[in-house]
Design a protein that fits this description.
The protein is of the alpha+beta class and 275 residues long. 37% of the residues lie in helices and 19% in strands. The structure holds protoporphyrin IX containing FE.
Length: 275
């Protein structure tokens, strides 16, 4: 394992679209690592300087956000008792909660459908929070190829059947030509920068129902590692990555900004004797 990402979700089976939900133990809800201080400082800057980009709240999400803050504090007290849990009472509770952890936090409340009603997302992977606030799960995922056909029904159904006793986690990954955590621009383009500047970006996402308000909390923890570093450290990574890129459908390649990437990667990675 390398220092930057504990998760490398590409394997020899190639690309596939899947919910990929796994049971989540209470003690593993949120993750703390050596990047904590630097990431919380970055969050602090973004919350101060780009508040309208990284925070979006509606009154419908206030009660659940307050409960989320209680749950985050309780989690830290139970599993990371040495970490501070001080908060500023002037912060909205979802902002206060977000300042305590490395994860981005989203609250979804069921009305006519599950809607995103509060969020503090400092490290988005090329999407814009302001475009998603108030939206349903289906509308949030509007740009995602195959989501409507393959994931909409199961995702809505999982949300409807959530209980506070059963939580889940899943992984999502992509390649981006920058290691910046904060990438709020909507839309992705194929990387043009030199391979040395590309990053393998993994999101560890969790879903949990809050016991009192019954809202669902969606957390996103982003791990970014340089592609070079991973190729050097992980034996099968290069061949699995090329296989995943090759087997992704055209529409997914377009959405992810992977068009043309395989050719560049194959030539550069081939020279590194990692296939
Ligand atoms: C089990 C639940 C979920 C599944 C299976 C799922 C699945 C996906 C998938 C496959 C993508 C495409 C990402 C990529 O390939 O790079 C995606 C994107 C995204 N998801 Fe989810 N998702 C789930 C829950 C949520 C929730 C609760 C939110 C609430 C904020 C959310 C917000 C997003 C956003 C904002 C994007 C980017 C959309 C864009 O490009 O505009 N997802 N999701």
């Amino acid at each position: 394992m390398n220092d930057a990402t504990p998760y490398i979700p590409v394997d020899q089976k190639g690309w596939r679209l899947a919910m990929g939900l796994r049971p989540l133990e209470a003690s593993k809800w949120l993750e703390v690592d050596s990047h904590r201080d630097e990431e919380l400082a970055l969050k602090d800057d973004l919350i101060k300087q780009q508040h309208e980009v990284v925070v979006a709240v509606r009154p419908e999400g206030d009660e659940a956000s307050a409960e989320l803050l209680e749950e985050v504090v309780s989690f830290l007290c139970s599993y990371h008792p040495n970490l501070p849990v001080d908060t500023d009472p002037n912060d909205h509770p979802i902002v206060a909660a977000s300042r305590l952890v490395q994860e981005d936090l989203c609250v979804l409340v069921r009305s006519d459908a599950w809607r995103l009603q509060a969020a503090c997302v400092c490290f988005p992977s090329r999407w814009s929070l302001v475009e998603k606030i108030g939206a349903t799960l289906d509308n949030i995922h509007g740009p995602v190829p195959l989501y409507g056909e393959e994931l909409s029904q199961p995702t809505n159904s999982v949300f409807d059947r959530m209980t506070s006793k059963r939580s889940f986690w899943r992984l999502n990954w992509t390649l981006l030509e920058s290691s910046a955590l904060h990438q709020p621009t909507s839309g992705r383009t194929s990387p043009e920068a030199k391979l040395g500047d590309w990053s393998f970006r993994v999101e560890r996402q969790t879903i949990r129902q809050l016991p009192r308000t019954k809202a669902v909390v969606f957390t996103i923890r982003t791990y970014v590692t340089s592609l070079d570093e991973l190729c050097a450290m992980e034996d099968d990574f290069c061949s699995n990555l090329l296989n995943a890129l090759d087997t992704a459908p055209e529409a997914v390649q377009q959405y992810k900004g992977w068009v043309g990437v395989t050719d560049t990667l194959r030539s550069v990675l081939g020279q590194k004797d990692c296939r």
